[in-house]
Amino acid sequence: MQYDAPMTKRLGKEDRLRLIKFLCSFAWADLRVHETEKTFIRKMVKKLSLDEAEAADVERWLKVPPPADEVDPQDIPLEHKRLFLESVRGIILADGEVDPNERINLSLLEELLR
What is the pLDDT of residues 17-49, one digit of tens each? Predict the structure, then answer.
């Protein structure tokens, strides 16, 4: 999966964490986080230059999903919708299987971001 490096650099701290929360939330769609999904998310943590405290939050979200009320598609800034969708597609495909819940959640996200 290719990411527009300047686009990821333009994300502010809050949006970087929001993106990772979305990825963790989608990784949990089938009720478990696969190793390939963890690897994908950890690579994104590095790509987004999250600090140690933020990375520790991510590790917690890999053990227990982030609270649903903190993963609201309406909070995604218009200019970052494409990046969020591409990233979510990447996490869904990371384990080589597309769970029906993942497919449903992606469809809902796409619909909400139109």
Answer: 999 999 999 999 989 999 999 999 999 999 999
